[in-house]
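Example 3.2
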Amino acid sequence: MKLSSSAFQNGEGIPRRFTCDGENLSPPLAWSGAPTAARSFALLCDDPDAPRGVWRHWAVYDLPADCAALPEGAGNAGPRSGLRQGENDFGDEGYGGPCPPHGHGTHHYRFRLLALSVAALDLRPHATCRDVEQALDGLILAEATLIGHYRR
């Protein structure tokens, strides 16, 4: 599988508009090459360089198997968007853009697309990103990663 964004290339900087210093919009994402057995997708975004361990910025789950993209701002649309999204480590449901501590150096943000063997995850309402991640255990058929970086 391949995951990409028209906003930044793998290994490059994430534009300011997709961060807490800009409009805090989720970037546009597209994917291809999913296994034919995939019944749904989940998308996770985290920062492994956070001072207190991995910081979870976004989790989208139960994306249908025929979905191949998320438009810019999809993670900011709230419950009316139709997306099932976890509560991030900022305490908000949906996308929370890169926001590393000032002077902490470059942080790497991992966008991970996971093709799953089930159509829906069994999660409680208002599940956290961590809950989503734990629910994926044993269900992942394939994974694609896109990494962007940001510093303040």
